[in-house]
Write a structure and sequence with these properties.
- This protein has 239 residues and is α/β, with parallel strands linked by helices.
- Helices cover 31% and strands 18% of the residues.
- It contains eight helices and eleven strands.
- It has a six-stranded mixed β-sheet with strand order 3-2-1-9-10-11. A five-stranded mixed β-sheet has the order 4-5-6-8-7, with no helix packed on it.
- The radius of gyration is 17 Å and the shape is globular.
- 39% of the residues are buried.
Amino acid sequence: MTPIFAIGDIHGQIDRLHEALEMIERDADRDAPVVFLGDYVDRGPDSRAVIDTLMRGQAEGRPWTCLMGNHDRYVLRFLDNPLYDDPQTSRPLLWTDPPLGGRATLASYGVDVDDRRPLEAIRDDAAEAIPQAHLDWIAALPRLHEADHQIFVHAGLRPGVPLDAQAEDDLIWIRKPFLETEHDWGRLVVHGHTALDFPQLYANRLNLDGGAGYGRPLFPALLLGREAFLLGPGGRTRL
């Protein structure tokens, strides 16, 4: 089986990202590709450094694929409309509201996010503070990545819809229909988005969102076909 690594939702946790990358560097298959499952920004303290790290790794020629998450897309939507309320959220929320954590992302770029400031003023400052290269990188992020034995996606897939017809909103937002289905896509679906206390392997999918956005560890995984191994200080642990 061709080895491939995956890393779930990072959410601005730059120290956790460095730890995860160090674990991969210590693994015997360290040169294998790495797929990052999206949600690089929001909630954590340094979204800018996370994006810088991923962009730099790709520029250096590392075999890294970075997918788009719903939080990443919020950056672009906020700059277009600071009052944007994504209809996919479970209740009306702006990106700058505490549950979504957009203010932490803006603060990492040096934007004054005092909640007494008008959102339009914060947006204008953000448009100047966030490098265009970062915005271009986010906009170009793929929504899906296929390998021989896995399908990588941020949130999941809508059952009954062919891969090439999946809607972007589902790829970066879907929960219940995907999480509850027992449908087998012929390959292991590797995703994040729905935070757990610990990554979980199911018959048809692997959820790698261990809740780094809420202060829990970031778990890099090594995939060999449908087998999954979490990396830790002591090496590999099979899920």
